[in-house]
Amino acid sequence: MLSNHLQNGMDTAKLMWSRLPKSEVEAEADGSTADEVGRYKKNDGIAVESLDYEVIENCAYRQEQAKRGKIYRAYTVLVKWILALLIGTGTALAAVFINISVENFAGWKYSLTFNIIQKSYFAGFLVYMLINLALVLSSAWIITQFAPAAAGSGIPEIKGYLNGIDTHGILLFRTLIGKIFGSIGSVGGGLALGKEGPLVHIGACIASLLGQGGSTKYHLRSRWLQIFTSERDRRDLVTCGCAAGVAAAFRAPVGGVLFALEEVTSWWRSQLMWRVFFTSAIVAVVVRSAMGWCKSGKCGHFGDGGFIIWDISGGQEDYSFQELLPMAVIGVIGGLLGALFNQLTYYIAYWRRNYLHKRGNRVKVVEVCIVSVITSVISFGLPLFKKCTPCPDTDANSGIECPRRPGMYGNYVNFYCGEKEYNDLATIFFNTQDDAIRNLFSAKTIHEFSAQSLLTFLVMFYSLAVVTFGTAVPAGQFVPGIMIGSTYGRLVGMFVVSFYQKLNIEEGTYALLGAASFLGGSMRMTVSLCVIMVEITNNLKLLPLIMLVLLISKAVGDAFNEGLYEEQARLRGIPLLESRPKYQMRNITAKEACGNQQVVYFPRVVKVMDVLSILKGNNHNGFPVIDHTRSGETLVIGLILRSHLLVLLQSKVDFQHSPLPFSSRDGPIPIRHNLTEFVKPVSSKGLSIHDIHLTPDDLEMYIDLAPFLNPSPYVVPEDMSLTKVYNLFRQLGLRHLLVVPHASRVVGMITRKDLLIEDNEDIAGVELQTTSQ
Ligand code: ATP
Ligand code: MG
């Protein structure tokens, strides 16, 4: 039963906020259909909750701010930089560990297979397939049994997190561990996926864990790191982690910063640029030192070819005007194949989620094993049908590494061929991904690969990448994208070389452009991809060409569907707020967008019984709090979070017998609760209404909500267009926005001049000055 007081409040609320009954008619009248209104209404079916990035300026916050002196502020800044350093170091070390492990597993696997196929092809295949299967199985086991949130690349989820959506389990310690070991298994096991996307997730997990001072569950917490009070700080650290992930994956520090800026974050603060840049620089230094240490052979098979970087500085120096047309064609192919990839993966992932994966973990593991066996059969079997190619004439300076003894793998793969021969299909199919890409980008000779081999690889690898995407293993899309793109790029290159024989054209350059075009057509990034491509190939001269193909492929892809990560986020029910509002929002007002909702309020002093029944009656996380003036006018005095109400109910210390609020004349408000709990939003997952146990006496008590609410929530007038509301909501990273009728009075006007306040300036002085003018 609601108390009378609350009932009055609710009635007033209905009067103030209820939607006009003819809103659909109105919507039609102003050009938007009722359907459109419905479409932009919230989706109650979505189970995800948002994050509170807003600063809650309640009593607790103000007290906390008043206590903070200069030393504390300096300490906070120092800890932020130390954390950036730790994030960079941690992500770089994780990347080095994954690379060393993958290279070693792959190295042992290929050496063993090559040795065995000298005696029996079948035995060689069996060993190759079983090693792949064991590695992939370990990865699938980790994901299904230990860290389900570590499946996939994790980028859509991190993008969602930075957009304000709380996806369960994505930043946990176990997810981090699952991602690291799962990636080693899936990439080492030769599946058509990469480790670069997972590294972004790994960076984000490391950042988030450091931001909260470690893992509570595993008792790995440090108190001196726990200084951050808001989700904002954690969000900034996660942004640093994403940049570190890309910087470590590609050894592309600037690319990492731009990736974070362009692809994953929704809000960017200029102060953040510095720290993200610093984190990426740390990654570059740590990775370089680790690689230097490994060069002396201390890291097994890692060292000569390991770590993603394809230095093609010896490649094509310049390009001629005639080449622009075939390069544009590469851009168009990239856009088409990229959009097709997104669409196919969307359909398959949809089917998996709704039918296959619902049958349980066993099905997921069996599925991954089948994909692994098919991959092994194709990558081992197809090169067997390929004729051997004689090695090109080598001289000491050419740098061509043709296998001199059977089984050696490197620039060219010998496979079953004789001495001074190589198998071009095995060179890209039966090889580690990094070496295969290095071979595809190679600009040493012409026609190293036959068109038939490239076409076979393209069709097969494309199909494998589509099928593998979405299985229960950590999977990145960068490297498969680079492999697919460089294959058709090289095919176009071969055609161009034979067409314009007099020009100094190299197929490797076209392979690089093809890789850029496929990534652009699928992921729809521009600036960051461009810089990453330049950084990994170490060839600045190709910059204008990469820009050209990226722009074309993105434009072509955009004509068909959304980018890969957006599509996947949609599929996973992550409601991202994109950077631009939809056009139709111009015709919808804030009030119309609220629909027929009855706003659920709390009065300032509320009966415990009512709090309990209201919290049980809905799942909302924010509630306006109203009060009445002496003249009986209703005032909205702030917004209270469900998580804070739950803390109040559980602790009981702020319960009072009187239904009257404390006034300032009674002296300071006697808050017995530990206010620090109210400075930041408490996790909505932490405490549930079912954890609250109250006695009948408790239920008859009251709580004065005034000290705990956020007294300055953002509000918009009811007839503000939804476009403006959208921009405000997204740019400020809000969770709740109150829609109010027209204000009755104005108490002041803020302009630019009111915001230009010097450090240590006396605000009262400013006021005096302003009024005296
Ligand atoms: P989020 O889900 O983004 O974390 P929330 O949980 O507070 O925020 P929901 O309750 O999930 O919000 O929102 C579902 C719908 O309920 C939305 O349409 C929203 O407008 C509406 N809603 C939210 N809070 C209230 C409230 N206090 N009174 C009435 N309607 C509300
Ligand atoms: Mg909700």
Averaged pLDDT: 82
Tally of strands: 14
CATH class of the largest domain reads: Mainly Alpha
What name does the CATH topology of the largest domain carry?
A: Clc chloride channel
Radius of gyration (CA) equals: 30 Å
Topology:
Layout: H1 4-17, H2 23-29, H3 34-40, E1 49-50, H4 59-67, H5 70-117, H6 121-146, H7 155-163, E2 165-166, H8 173-188, H9 196-211, E3 214-215, E4 220-221, H10 231-250, H11 253-264, H12 270-295, H13 324-356, H14 361-384, E5 389-390, E6 421-422, H15 424-429, H16 433-441, H17 451-468, H18 478-499, H19 507-523, H20 527-537, H21 543-558, H22 564-571, H23 590-594, E7 602-603, E8 605-607, H24 608-617, E9 622-628, E10 634-641, H25 642-651, E11 655-656, H26 696-699, E12 702-704, E13 715-717, H27 722-732, E14 738-740, H28 752-755, H29 763-772
Parallel strand pairs: 7-9, 13-14
Antiparallel strand pairs: 1-2, 3-4, 5-6, 8-12, 9-10, 11-12
Helix pairs in contact: 5-6, 5-8, 5-9, 5-10, 5-12, 6-8, 6-14, 7-22, 8-9, 9-10, 10-11, 10-12, 11-12, 11-20, 13-18, 13-19, 13-21, 13-22, 14-17, 16-18, 17-18, 18-19, 19-20, 19-21, 20-21
The structure holds adenosine-5'-triphosphate (ATP) and magnesium ion.
Magnesium ion binds at residues 49, 619, 621.
How would you sum up this structure, described in words?
- With 773 residues, this protein is mainly alpha-helical.
- The protein has 3 domains: 4-68 and 587-744, CBS-domain (Roll); 72-295, Clc chloride channel (Orthogonal Bundle), CATH 1.10.3080; 321-360 and 382-571, Clc chloride channel, CATH 1.10.3080.10.
- It has 29 helices and 14 strands.
- The strands form 6 sheets. Strands 7-9-10 form a 3-stranded mixed β-sheet.
- Strand 13, helix 27 (722-732) and strand 14 form a beta-alpha-beta unit.
- Residues 42, 44, 49-50, 597, 599-600, 619-623, 735 line the site of adenosine-5'-triphosphate.
